[in-house]
C-alpha cells in the first residue's frame, strides 16, 4: 500500500468505516466505494477498480475513489496509470500535498528521477499546509533521486559472469559465501516445500555446496547434508576462512515466521559437516539473529539482529571470542553503519577492517543497496560508501562474498532477464576493494622425521609488535593457513610440547599483483645438547648492539621457553658477515650476544644458565656471496649446552 494515501490507510485500519469522512455526500457513490474497499482488502483488484469506477460515475469529484484506483495501480506497478489517475485528482485539488507527493513517488518508483525531483520540489515549495512528515519524506526522496541521477551518470565497471548450471538452479539461488582459497562455495536455495502441511510456507530454504580446483569450473552443487538441512529454513551460510567452520541461520518456527531464527555452527570433519548447534547467549536471544559473518582469525562474529538497543529495524552487531572460549556481549556497529531502517548481510573481509553490508537506510538506488565501510583508528566504522551503479539497482541487492584477494566478488541477482536469483562473479571496482590480502600457508614439522606436528603459533606485525593471529596446527601436510594484509613484515613464532621453540620472519611488502599466496615451512627439534635455533626476529641497527624494540617479542618467547625448561643451559651466539675487519666483527658479535643475555637476566633468567659467545664471521650458514646471503649470516642463535 502506498504511504502517500493517508486517508485510505486510515480507512483500512478502522474497525468500522461507517463514520469515515469523504470528499462526497453521495451515499450511493460511498456505497460503491466501500464495496471496492472490501474487494481491495481481499486483493481482488479488478473488482475493486470496477466499484471505484462506479463510484466515480456517480460523483466525478470523489477523491477517495481516485486514490483507491491509484493505490491499486501502484500495487501492480502500473506507474504510468497511477500518475494519470493522480493528475486527475490534481486537476480537482491543484495544491493537494498528498496527491503531489503521490505523483512524485510514482515517478520515483518508475525510476524517472528527473520528474520525481520536479514534484518533490513542488511539494517543498507549498506553504505550511504540508504535513511535516510529508516534508521530511520529500526531502529524503529528493536526496535519493539526486543520488540516483549522479550514480547513473557515473557508472562503475560491471561485468557479471553467471556461475553456470552446476551452481545455479531454476529456483532462487542467493546468499553466497566462499572459503578464503576460493575453492568452496556455500549458498542458499529456495526450494519447494516437500512437507505436505497446509500450515507451512510453500517454499523452504536449504544450504548447498559446490567445490572446484584452482581456476577450474565449479562442480555440481549438492545439498550440504542432512546434518544441516531439515524441513525448516536453513540459510545465510558463512564459511570460515579455512572452510572448516560453517555458520548459518536456522528458523524453527512451524509457521515459517522469523521470530525463531538463530545462528548455528557446524564443523567440517571426515569429509562432512557435523550436526549443528545453536550459538549460546549472548549471541542468540529471544530476538531475531541471522546472517552471520566470521573474521578470518575466527575471533569476531558479525550478525544481524532486531534486538533491543539498536538504531531501529534490523542492525548489524558483533561479538568477540574471549580467552575462555565464550562470546562477549554483542556490540552495535554504530550509527555510521546502522540507521533507523534495515541493515543486513554483513561480510567482514579477511583483512579484518573492511565491512560490506546491505542497507535500505543509506542513500542508494532503491530497495537494499550494497555498501562498504572501513574500520577507523579509533575502532569505529567509517561512513559507508555505496558500491555504485549498476552493481546496485532499483531492486534489492542483499549479499556479496568478496574474494580474499579483494579484486572479485560473488553476488546474487535476477539480471539479464532472469525471473529468479542466480549467482554471478563480478570484478569489484578498485575504489571499493578491501586491502589486498594474501594466503600464507605451509607446515610445521619435525625436523628429524619431516612429519607435520601439532603446535601453537603466533603471528606478530613487526611494525608495532601487535599480535595478528594465534592458532593451533594439527598433524596434516598443510597445517598453517592464514590470511594477512599486504604491506607488512611479520614474525612467526611456533611452540610445541617436547620441542624447542622456533621462529621466522617474512615480508609481504611489494608483492607482485600476480602473486596471491606465500608458502612457509618451519621445522622443530626436540631439545638435546648441541641443538641450535636461530632467533630470526632479533634485530640490531647496522654496526650496533642495542636491541631494537621489535626484538622484544621473540626474546620474551625465549624467556617463556627457559622458564618452562628450568634445567636447560644455553649459549647465545652472535654472528656477522665477512664485511669489515675480523677483530671488529668478533667484538660486535660478542656485544650483541651479551645484549641478549642481559635482556634475559632482566626478565628473571638465572645468569648461570646463560653464556654469551661472539663468533664474528667464522661460522657462516651460507656463503657470503650475495647481499641476501650476507644478511642471513648476520644472525643470533641459541644453542643448548646442557
Description:
By secondary structure, this protein is α+β, with helices and mostly antiparallel strands. 24% of the residues lie in helices and 28% in strands. It contains eleven helices and 32 strands. The strands form eight sheets. Strands 6, 7, 8, 9 and 10 form a five-stranded antiparallel sheet that branches. The protein has a four-stranded antiparallel sheet with strand order 1-21-20-19, with no helix packed on it. It has a four-stranded antiparallel sheet with strand order 2-3-4-5, with no helix packed on it. Helix 3 (45-58) packs antiparallel against helix 4. It is elongated and about 115 Å long. Mean pLDDT is 89; it is low at 3-7 and 10-19.
Instruction: Determine the oligomeric state from the structure.
Output: single chain
Mean pLDDT: 89
Number of helices: 11
Helix content: 10-25%
- Count the E strands: 32
**Main β-sheet, in a few words?**
5 strands, antiparallel
3D shape: elongated
* Strand coverage percent: 25-35%
Class by SSE composition: alpha+beta
CA-based gyration radius: 33 Å
List strands and helices in order, with pairings.
Blueprint: H1 6-12, H2 27-41, H3 45-58, H4 63-75, H5 79-92, H6 97-109, H7 113-124, H8 132-153, E1 161-162, E2 172-178, E3 184-192, E4 203-211, E5 222-223, E6 233-239, E7 245-251, E8 261-269, E9 272-273, E10 277-278, E11 289-294, E12 300-305, E13 315-320, E14 331-332, E15 343-348, E16 354-359, E17 369-374, E18 385-386, E19 400-402, E20 408-413, E21 422-427, E22 437-446, E23 455-461, E24 467-473, E25 480-485, E26 489-495, E27 502-507, E28 517-524, E29 532-534, H9 552-564, E30 570-574, H10 582-602, E31 610-614, H11 627-633, E32 636-640
Parallel strand pairs: 22-28, 30-31
Antiparallel strand pairs: 1-21, 2-3, 3-4, 4-5, 6-7, 7-8, 8-9, 8-10, 11-12, 12-13, 13-14, 15-16, 16-17, 17-18, 19-20, 20-21, 22-25, 23-24, 23-26, 26-27, 29-32, 30-32
Amino acid at each position: 500500500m502506498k504511504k502517500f494515501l493517508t486517508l485510505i490507510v486510515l480507512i483500512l485500519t478502522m474497525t468500522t468505516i461507517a463514520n469515515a469522512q469523504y470528499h462526497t455526500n453521495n451515499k450511493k457513490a460511498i456505497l460503491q466505494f466501500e464495496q471496492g474497499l472490501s474487494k481491495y482488502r481481499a486483493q481482488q483488484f479488478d473488482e475493486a477498480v470496477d466499484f471505484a469506477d462506479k463510484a466515480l460515475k456517480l460523483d466525478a469529484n470523489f477523491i477517495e475513489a481516485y486514490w483507491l484506483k491509484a493505490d491499486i495501480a501502484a500495487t501492480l506497478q502500473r506507474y504510468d496509470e497511477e500518475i494519470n489517475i493522480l493528475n486527475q485528482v490534481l486537476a480537482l485539488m491543484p495544491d493537494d500535498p498528498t496527491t503531489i507527493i503521490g505523483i512524485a513517488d510514482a515517478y520515483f518508483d518508475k525510476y524517472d528521477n528527473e520528474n520525481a525531483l520536479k514534484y518533490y520540489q513542488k511539494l517543498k515549495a507549498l506553504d505550511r499546509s504540508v504535513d511535516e512528515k510529508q516534508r521530511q519524506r520529500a526531502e529524503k526522496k529528493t536526496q535519493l533521486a539526486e543520488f540516483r541521477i549522479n550514480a547513473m551518470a557515473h557508472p562503475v565497471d560491471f561485468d557479471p559472469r553467471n556461475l553456470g548450471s552446476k551452481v545455479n538452479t531454476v529456483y532462487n539461488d542467493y546468499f553466497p559465501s566462499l572459503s578464503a582459497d576460493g575453492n568452496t562455495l556455500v549458498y542458499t536455495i529456495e526450494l519447494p516445500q516437500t512437507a505436505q502441511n497446509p500450515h507451512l510456507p510453500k517454499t523452504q530454504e536449504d544450504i548447498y555446496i559446490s567445490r572446484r580446483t584452482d581456476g577450474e569450473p565449479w562442480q555440481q552443487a549438492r545439498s550440504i547434508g542432512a546434518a544441516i538441512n531439515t524441513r525448516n529454513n536453513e540459510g545465510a551460510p558463512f564459511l570460515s576462512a579455512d572452510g572448516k567452520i560453517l555458520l548459518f541461520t536456522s528458523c524453527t518456527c512451524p509457521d515459517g515466521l522469523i521470530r525463531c531464527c538463530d545462528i548455528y555452527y557446524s564443523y567440517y570433519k571426515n569429509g562432512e559437516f557435523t550436526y549443528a548447534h545453536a550459538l549460546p547467549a549472548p549471541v542468540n536471544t529471544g530476538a531475531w539473529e541471522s546472517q552471520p559473518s566470521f573474521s578470518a582469525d575466527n575471533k569476531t562474529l558479525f550478525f544481524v539482529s532486531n534486538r533491543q538497543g539498536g538504531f531501529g529495524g534490523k542492525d548489524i552487531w558483533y561479538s568477540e571470542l574471549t580467552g575462555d572460549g565464550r562470546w562477549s556481549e554483542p556490540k552495535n556497529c554504530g550509527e555510521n553503519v546502522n540507521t533507523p531502517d534495515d541493515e543486513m548481510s554483513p561480510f567482514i573481509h579477511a583483512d579484518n577492517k573492511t565491512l560490506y553490508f546491505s542497507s535500505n537506510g543509506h542513500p542508494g538506488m532503491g530497495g537494499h543497496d550494497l555498501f562498504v565501510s572501513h574500520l577507523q583508528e579509533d575502532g569505529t566504522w567509517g561512513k559507508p560508501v555505496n558500491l555504485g551503479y549498476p552493481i546496485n539497482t532499483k531492486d534489492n541487492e542483499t549479499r556479496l562474498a568478496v574474494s580474499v584477494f579483494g579484486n572479485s566478488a560473488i553476488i546474487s541477482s535476477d539480471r539479464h532477464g532472469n525471473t529468479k536469483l542466480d549467482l554471478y562473479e563480478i570484478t569489484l571496482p578498485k575504489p571499493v576493494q578491501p586491502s589486498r590480502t594474501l594466503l600464507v600457508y605451509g607446515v610445521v614439522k619435525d625436523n628429524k622425521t619431516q612429519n607435520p606436528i601439532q603446535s601453537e603459533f603466533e603471528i606478530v606485525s613487526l611494525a608495532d609488535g601487535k599480535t595478528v593471529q594465534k592458532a593451533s596446527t594439527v598433524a596434516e601436510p598443510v597445517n598453517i593457513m592464514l590470511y594477512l594484509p599486504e604491506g607488512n613484515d611479520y614474525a612467526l613464532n611456533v611452540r610445541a610440547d617436547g620441542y624447542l621453540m622456533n621462529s621466522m620472519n617474512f615480508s609481504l611488502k611489494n608483492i607482485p599483483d600476480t602473486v596471491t599466496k606465500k608458502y612457509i615451512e618451519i621445522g622443530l627439534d626436540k631439545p638435546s645438547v648441541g641443538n641450535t635455533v636461530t632467533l630470526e626476529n632479533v634485530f640490531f641497527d647496522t654496526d650496533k648492539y642495542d636491541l631494537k624494540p621489535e626484538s622484544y617479542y621473540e626474546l620474551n618467547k625465549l624467556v617463556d621457553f627457559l622458564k618452562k625448561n628450568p634445567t636447560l643451559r644455553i649459549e647465545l651466539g652472535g654472528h656477522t658477515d665477512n664485511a669489515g675487519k675480523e677483530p671488529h666483527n668478533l667484538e660486535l658479535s660478542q656485544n650483541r650476544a651479551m645484549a641478549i643475555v642481559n635482556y634475559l637476566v632482566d626478565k628473571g633468567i638465572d645468569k648461570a644458565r646463560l653464556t654469551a659467545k661472539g663468533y664474528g664471521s667464522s661460522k657462516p650458514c651460507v656463503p657470503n656471496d650475495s647481499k641476501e646471503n650476507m644478511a642471513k649470516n648476520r644472525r643470533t642463535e641459541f644453542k643448548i649446552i646442557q
